[in-house]
Specification:
By secondary structure, the chain is of the alpha+beta class. The chain has 15 helices and 14 strands. About 40% of the residues lie in helices and about 25% in strands. The longest helix has 27 residues.
């Protein structure tokens, strides 16, 4: 037994967490390659390395994935101090597992054209000087950060734009690290539209661009002659997060839809909690200016007037209009007034108690509220006590989310 423990300890020395081993970087000039402050890391790697997100077979492993900031020319390589081999365990008497083929696992998701030669990558940085964003510019804005003013631009394009197909193949590799259950989209379907966000800056007096993030939208048909755009993927890269870029990108997409008479309403494909929070913030900021979302109407409850106004003016679905109503109703409700808050709570719980889709997050809430043996029951089979517990948990989590949105609105 002691010998087996020693062996396991020796094997553990050759394991590492993929989220920490993989180093990503957007490179604007050669100095960025050695600048540790420019490095960022994946949020997830289970889509490449399994649920444990671990890599086996190396000590002190570093996997470098560098992208030129504009054209996304790509460098991929790995370094390590030691690699597992049989001669290091000659006395173990067991069959050793082989080291993971890390580069093969990663590069099968990367389009051809990347390099593992750093000198070649550094030479390719000069190509960024002639990069121009794809498609039509829809919006520009500035952000004041660290005492400087930075300029950003948002473009809309489709896959037929010359050069964009290859560019998108490189760009979408980021979603493997930042969007759960990510899958590469069928770019040959012309109902996809792409919204690209760039920082515009100067290098040696010349205008340059660096990718910040992007969004993909699929235009579903809505009978008889409308379309229903569905937001699919939204990503702001880590060096640019928490600077308001997600709201700018989403609002620019909204503004584009407002002018299109064929758009019925806007939906979102399985939104993450972070994106739902962003969406609620933007939609609430927009609805707060509408007639039927003013205080007097909010106290009267959710209405068809709200649904109609939100859809006609902002292309919001009924479901999203209801969320915004609840957020604004909470805003005007004095929580110290027990009667007012009781009425609000009952209205929200009544909605939560209605039949609803049992998605993954619903069952995560159930898991916290119920015993394991009860998880196999559907919501419709819950006892009264179980349903009350679930509704209370759902309500409290929803209030926490709504308060976060209102806190952000109060400082903008």
């Amino acid at each position: 037994m002691a010998g087996m423990n020693i062996l396991n300890n020796k094997l553990d020395a050759y394991k590492c967490t993929a989220n920490e081993a993989i180093q990503l970087k957007l490179v604007r000039d050669e100095s960025d390659v050695e600048d540790c402050k420019k490095t960022f890391y994946p949020e997830m790697t289970h889509q490449l390395f399994g649920e444990q997100e671990s890599i086996f077979g190396y000590k002190d492993l570093t996997v470098q994935m560098f992208y030129s900031a504009a054209k996304l020319n790509t460098y991929i390589n790995m370094k390590y101090s030691d690699k597992i081999s049989k001669d290091k365990f000659f006395d173990s008497g067991i069959s050793l597992p082989e080291a993971d083929n890390v580069l093969a696992t990663i590069t099968k998701h990367v389009p051809p054209g990347f390099t593992s030669n750093l000198d070649d990558f550094l030479t390719s940085l000069a190509d960024d000087a002639d990069f121009k964003p794809f498609g039509a510019k829809l919006h520009s804005y500035t952000v004041h950060k660290d005492g400087t003013e930075r300029e950003f631009e948002i473009y809309k394009t489709d896959i037929e734009c010359p050069g964009f197909r290859a560019y998108h193949e490189r760009l979408q590799t980021f979603i493997l690290f930042y969007i759960d259950a990510a899958s590469f989209i069928d770019v040959d379907d012309d109902r996809w539209h792409y919204y690209l966000l760039f920082e515009k800056y100067k290098s040696n007096g010349n205008p340059m661009y660096a990718i910040v993030g992007y969004m993909t939208v699929y235009n579903y048909y809505a009978y008889p002659e409308k379309i229903r755009p569905r937001i699919s993927q939204v990503l702001i890269l880590p060096p640019f997060q928490k600077q308001g870029h997600g709201a700018q990108l989403l609002q620019t997409f909204y503004n584009d839809c407002y002018t299109r008479s064929e758009v019925l309403d806007i939906t979102v494909e399985d939104p993450s909690e972070n994106f739902q929070r962003l969406r609620d913030f933007v939609d609430t900021n927009n609805c707060i200016k509408l007639r039927y979302f003013q205080t007097d109407y909010l106290y009267e409850g959710f209405s068809e007037d709200m649904v109609r106004e939100a859809q006609d003016k902002l292309k919001l679905s009924k479901r999203q209009a209801r969320r915004v109503y609840e957020i604004l109703r909470l805003k005007v409700t004095d929580e110290k007034n027990k009667e007012l808050f009781r009425r609000f709570r009952l209205e929200v719980k009544k909605r939560l108690n209605a039949p609803f889709q049992k998605n993954g997050r619903d069952f995560q809430k159930l898991e916290r509220a119920l015993q394991p043996e009860e998880l196999s029951q559907t919501l419709g089979c819950m006892s009264t006590e179980q349903r009350i517990t679930f509704l209370e948990l759902s309500f409290e989590e929803l209030m926490e989310h709504y308060r976060h949105v209102l806190d952000r609105i109060s400082i903008t």
